[in-house]
Structures are given as C-alpha cells and as structure tokens.
Write a structure and sequence with these properties.
Elements (H helix, E strand, L loop, with lengths): L2 E10 L4 E8 L5 E8 L3 E6 L5 E9 L4 E5 L2 E3 L6 H13 L1 E12 L10 E11 L10 E8 H9 L6 H14 L9
Parallel strand pairs: 4-9
Antiparallel strand pairs: 1-2, 2-3, 4-7, 5-6, 5-10, 8-9
Helix pairs in contact: 2-3
Length: about 180
C-alpha cells in the first residue's frame, strides 16, 4: 500500500475541492495524484405500490441536457447518510418515506475522486410539499413503470450511473431478476 507523503489544496469551490497528493510506493517510487473531493452523496430510489419509480426531471448544465434522475444530494458534514436520504427525498419530491432501506454504496470513479454514493430504496410513502435548496430547479416529478425503466436502461436513456445501478439492483433483489428475493 502506498504511503501518503504530502497534500496540497489546489482549488476550493462551492461544490468541491481539488487536492494534490504525493505518494510513495513500497519500492520507493514517488508519484502525484490530483484528487477531486466533493464530499459524499445519497441517491434515493422511490418505488410506489404500483411498481413505479419516482424521478426528478431537471436541467444538468454541466452536460448541457435535461435529465431524468433520482432524488439525490450531498451529505452534510457529520450527517448520517440515511438522514440525508430522508431530507433530500422530501426536499426534491415532497415524499415522506416510512421505509428507507440501504441498497448499496459505491465510488463512481476512484481514479480521481474519493466521492462515495449511498443508494437507498424508499417505499411505503406519502406525498407532501417540495422545498428546494436555493440552487435547485426541479422541472417536474414523474412516475415511470419499472418495466419501462428497464427498457430505458437498455436504450441508454439515463445519464446517471446511479439510476442504472439503483434500478438494476432493485430489480435483481426484489423482482424477477433475483427470483423474487429468494436467493
């Protein structure tokens, strides 16, 4: 395992910072890695009693597209990921979930960022009022049948890896993909 020798903050913005890190391998080789550190995030897969997935439609300026994504957001410092999932779900969709279950966590690109994403499944919920952050602009909240979601994945219609991961894992664990959870 490489040893961290030094770190230097190169950039700090409102959403992330970039830290240059110098490492040394066991054989003495020294090398540099620039690490994007945005903090950790949550993604919530809300599935209603009709097996419909609740999406948020919003503009994603960085990729220049309108996208269908799952409710998601950053985890505040010292905040439990499950609490962040409850908060983000309510903010973006107005949904108050009685059941919020951890599905998986992953590092989306461990070659240059230490960001970790936690995905939760929300079921048994009620609808209330949305209350966005100042910078959020949700265009609409939409329901899509699970079977249609699977088709959309195969047609490369979702731009978020977390959407694909969440839906496919849900299908595998709770639907036909995993023999109805009996594995």
């Amino acid at each position: 395992m490489s040893k961290l020798l030094n770190e230097e903050l190169k950039f700090e913005g409102p959403r992330f910072k970039v830290v240059r890190k110098e490492y040394e391998r066991d054989d003495g080789l020294k090398y540099i890695r620039d690490c994007v550190e945005p903090g950790n995030a949550v993604v919530i897969l809300p599935v209603n009693e009709n097996n419909e997935v609740i999406f948020v439609k919003e503009e994603r300026e960085v990729i220049g597209r309108i996208s269908m994504g799952l409710p998601a957001g950053m985890i505040d410092e010292n905040e439990d990921p499950k609490d962040a999932a409850k908060r983000e779900l309510a903010e973006e969709t107005g949904i108050e979930a009685k059941s919020l279950e951890f599905l998986i966590s992953y590092f989306p690109s461990c070659g240059y960022t230490n960001e970790r994403i936690f995905i939760y499944l929300a079921r048994d919920f009620t609808y209330g009022q949305q209350h966005f952050d100042d910078t959020e602009e949700i265009l609409s909240v939409e329901k899509i049948k699970l079977d249609d979601c699977l088709k959309m994945i195969s047609e490369n219609k979702f731009y978020h890896a977390s959407v694909n991961i969440a839906i496919l894992l849900y299908y595998y664990k709770y639907c036909n993909g995993g023999n109805n959870g009996s594995n």
